[in-house]
Design goal:
single chain, 401 residues, alpha+beta, 10 helices
């Protein structure tokens, strides 16, 4: 971890996910949404004793029906279950789409013996098609019947929410008798707010909805909201955090936020590594900025430069493309004082030629570290992205079919 990176240095395991915390059961089944025949319906249930919950959603004004439903559910600060389907986004589907979300929550509630208002709903897949409700009606009883605690159930749930992902994504942290776990999906349309991603996070710590909300907001701010694969914001992004209280342990707010941020960071990094067609994982850190907002703006602008991202794909440490992107921002800096360092080699010094770019071997490793020093203050921020490859274009040009 870079000294400029605010991510906690906490041991994170990727062997378990939403069931790492006590008081949670999960399942992932084949319902029939995906043409591939893979798992495509997941359910995570909080068995208590507590049911506090918080969530963050996409800031896209064109939001999917499940986002509208779940925003209303989470207002009460509690939830007992999250149902997630892959193979249909249920976005831009009008009143019928919202009714289908409502029916999905009702079906899950009936099977679990809880109210529809206790069920959060998430969908992912192609925008602009109604969900096949016959598949939902058949799938819900099956996924409820498959519910179980433990590592295998968590892994099957993580697999069931994948779309163009090539691998399931899980992470967990255990600390002093309580745990935080989570699963995520997303490989394209990764950009704040939130980065097409769905995330379910669980904890068995005793925390109020307000405490969960504060911790989740901060964790998302420095992890998911700084994972920017392709600059394209989804209509369905949802990050849910539920607390069962099953450990009976009440951690300090800062301690919990620390652990939660570590789990979110691991999941965000897994999203970037599995980004569609990517061959490099790129961390862009801006230091010496006047404010953190300006540092983030500079890092994000470089992360969204197709010229820079294609250069990295070609293993070319073209620092001129970094500088030209920085120059389009409103951040305060003197162009004749900027340094750019790529994988430890300061290729640009004081806005001019630095050490020979031949010293940077981008073919030697998947990891690319870009450090931009504005020399205008003490603030810093990191944004994570990936290169832009032929495979990304091919995969997204053929997605609908």
């Amino acid at each position: 971890m870079s000294s400029h990176n605010p991510i906690p240095d906490v041991p994170v395991s990727t062997d378990s996910g939403v069931c790492a915390a006590a008081g949670f059961s999960a399942a992932g089944v084949v319902a029939g949404f995906k043409k591939s025949g893979g798992r495509d319906l997941a359910l995570v249930v909080n068995t208590g004793p507590d049911d506090a919950a918080a969530a963050q959603f996409t800031s896209n004004r064109v939001a999917a029906a499940p986002v509208h439903w779940s925003r209303e559910v989470i207002r009460q600060g509690r939830a007992r279950a999250v149902v997630l389907n892959s193979g249909g986004a249920n976005a831009c589907t009008g009143p019928q789409g919202f009714q289908n979300t409502h029916e999905t929550a009702e079906l899950v509630g009936e099977q679990l013996g809880i109210g529809a208002g206790d069920v959060l709903v998430c969908s992912t897949g192609l925008i602009g098609e109604q969900l096949p409700m016959d598949v939902v009606r058949g799938g819900v009883p099956a996924v409820v019947a498959a519910l179980a605690p433990g590592q295998r159930a968590a892994a099957e749930a993580a697999e069931a929410i994948m779309t163009t992902d090539t691998v399931p994504k899980q992470a967990c942290v255990s600390d002093a008798g309580w745990s935080v776990g989570g699963m995520a999906k997303g490989a394209g349309m990764l950009a704040p707010g939130l980065a097409t991603m769905l995330v379910v996070l669980t904890t068995d710590a005793v925390l109020s909805a307000e405490e969960l909300s504060l911790a989740l907001k901060e964790a998302c701010r420095v992890t998911f909201n700084r994972a920017d694969s392709d600059g394209c914001m989804s209509t369905n992004d949802t990050v849910v955090l539920m607390s069962s209280g099953a450990s009976a342990q009440r951690p300090d707010q800062g301690e919990f936020t620390h652990a939660l941020t570590a789990v979110c960071h691991s999941l965000a990094q897994q999203l970037i590594t599995d980004a569609e067609g990517a061959s490099h994982d790129i961390a862009i850190t801006t230091v010496g900025a006047a404010t953190e907002t300006e540092a983030e703006d500079v890092s994000r602008t470089v992360a969204r430069s197709n010229l820079f991202k294609t250069a990295v794909f070609g293993n070319d440490p073209n620092w001129g493309r970094v500088l030209s992107a920085v120059g389009t921002t409103d951040a305060r800096f003197d162009p004749d004082r900027i340094d750019v360092t790529i994988n430890g080699v300061t290729v640009c010094r004081n806005g001019a030629i630095g050490d020979p770019r031949e010293g940077v071997d981008l073919a030697a490793s998947r990891a690319v570290d870009v450090l931009i020093d504005l020399k205008a203050g003490d603030a810093s921020a990191t944004v994570w992205t990936n290169d832009l490859t032929h495979n990304y274009v091919e995969e997204n040009s053929a997605y609908s079919s």
